[in-house]
Amino acid sequence: MISITDLLIYTVSFVGIYTTVFFILVLIENRKHIKKKPLKQLPSVTVIVPAYNEEKTLSKTVESLLELDYPKDKLKIVIVDDGSKDNTLKVAKQYEKYSNITVYSKPNGGKHTALNFALERCNTDLAGALDADSFVDSQALKRLVAFFSDKKVMAVTPSMKIHNPKTVLQHIQRMEFLIGIFLRKIFAFLDSIHVTPGPFTMYRVDYFRKYGMYKKAYHTEDIEIALRIQTENLRIENCVDAYVYTHGPSKFVPLRKQRIRWYRGFLENVIDYKQLFGRKHGNLGLFVLPMSFVSVALIISLASYNIGLMLKNWYLSFKNLMAINFDVTNLQWFRFDLFFMNTKPVAVVGFFGLFMALCLVIITKFLSREKKSILKSYVYFFLFYWVLFAYWWSLAIIQKLANKKTTWGHKSE
Q: Which candidate, 198, 204, 194, places its Cα nearest to that of 150?
């Protein structure tokens, strides 16, 4: 009779291998369409920088926008101070000397209100935001706007990277974001992008005029607007070489709060847009959204079972040590023998799943043009991410079931 452990490994491995092979085949099939040729006639663009208590990081953000390789007469930068309590407004005012930069200040109302405040005053073809703790590659905008050559495209997402990771948590996020670059490109090929990241996703301004502005959307307006676009059967594209850099949370508690907000927001918004499930919305409704929940359920199950099993084994080991009065000098701690390697089918399937995951990482490194070594980031990611992912999602689900109010450190976020 198959054990619970074997059943979980078989199921997780099958889902992982199936989706990985499928995604790689999608990438190979669309390899000639990964990038777009630059537009001859560049559209006018507004980049909004919503800022709340960002006096330390705002300058780097604005400087990166000023260094964009884009005609200055077609690029407007709007900084909106959302009622900051520090010197954010003072820092922003220093950039009013540039003819294409406008600075506004308004009472604190949250990030979506700061974005809408700027959009109401926007008269360009495209508009997007850049968080005041992020910065962009100089070629990002020119590469990104090329995808608007298709009139059905309402939004184009960039590729986000963690800049200069230092802590274990930042290395984990670095690997997570790199894999996200691969996944977002695959979802674009499948017309199934369901999150348009806040930093530097560009939209047609006409979309906001016709379908409405940003909503509070459980503090995840980037998820809500992506799902809203999908309900209208309009397109969201991805520019894989439009790089945006951000500093991931370096400490556990801020990262936990961020992820609970993201995952709880995803749950709430998907419930609001539950009509996206089904054949009408193609790959998104039949495969991508359902598989998101299947993956979460499997990882939570696997993590819970293995943690329980580990605690049980620790307890038994402790009892055994008590029986020998903690005399560990004669214990054999490790044994390796080629003749006693585990060749059970479940082990073979598990190892093949790990091999496919490694192939995915290699493809991701190539696709994202990551020049620095990712070995340390991958090791931390492989060891800890699945446990953290299960933990964050479990807390988000518990908060949803308990109807606990979603909170976030800064109102503007």
A: 204
